[in-house]
Amino acid sequence: MNIIFFGAHPDDLEILCGGTIAACVAQGHKAWMAVATNGNVGSPTLTNAEIAAVRKSEAEAAARCLGATGLIWMDENDEFLFDDERTRLKFVDAVRQAQADVIVTHNPNDYHPDHVACSKLASDARILSAVRLIKTAHPQTPTSPELFHMDSIAGLRFEPQFFVDISEHFELKQRALQSHQSQNLWLKSIFNTDLTSYVQIQSAFRGLQTGVRYAEAFVQPVYWPRKPVSLPFLQR
Ligand SMILES: [Zn+2]
Predict the structure, then answer these.
(1) Ligand 1 mean position to 36 CA, how many Å?
(2) Ligand 1: centre distance to CA 157 (Å)
(3) Is the pLDDT of residue 176 over 90?
(4) Is residue 233 in some structural domain?
(5) Residue 9 Cα to ligand 1 middle (Å)
C-alpha cells in the first residue's frame, strides 16, 4: 500500500504521526512524506533562504530515519500556504507521484492557518488525483485514495476515532524529531517548548486513551464513496 502524509511544516509529520509512519514502513507499506512549506521564517539569525535550506536537510534526515520512501518538498513559503489552483495542482501531483492508496493530513479544525490550508488542499486532492483530464507531471491514480486526518498540535479540538499503537516505534519517532535541531532551538526561544518532552506527553496521553504506552490519533472524515474495509496501517 502507498500512503502519503502531508504536513504543513517540516516537523509536523514527525510530531503528529511519526510513529505511524514508522509503523507503516515496518508493515511493508510505502510511506511518502510531503512537506508543504519550507520553514523559511523560523530563525532568529539566518536569512529566509538559509533557514529554508537547513529545514530541508533536517526534513530529509528525519524522513531517512523513519524509513520513508521519499520526501516531497513542496517549497511553499512558510505562513503563506493558500488554496489556489497552482497549489492545488501541486498537491494533486504529489498524490500521483506517490500513487497513493491513502492520504493522511492535518485535520481542518487545527488552529494554524498553514495546517488548515494543508488539510483543505490535501483533502481536496483526493478526488482530483484520479481525474484523467486534470494534467500534472505524474499520471493519475487508478482510484481516489482513502483519507484520514491526524491529531492537532497539543490535541486541540480533536476527538480521536482511531488510534495507532506506536509504543514500538516511539524511540524512532523521537530520533526523527532530533533531526529538526533548528526547530527545537526556535521553539525553545519563542515558546519555551522542548519538542522531546512535548511529543512524549501527547503520545502518552493518546496512549492513555486507548490503553497502550504511546499512541497517535486519527479520524476519517465523511466523504463518498468510501471503501468498506479497515486499512492495514490502522490495524493492530
Ligand atoms: Zn506546523
Answers:
(1) 10
(2) 16
(3) yes
(4) no
(5) 5
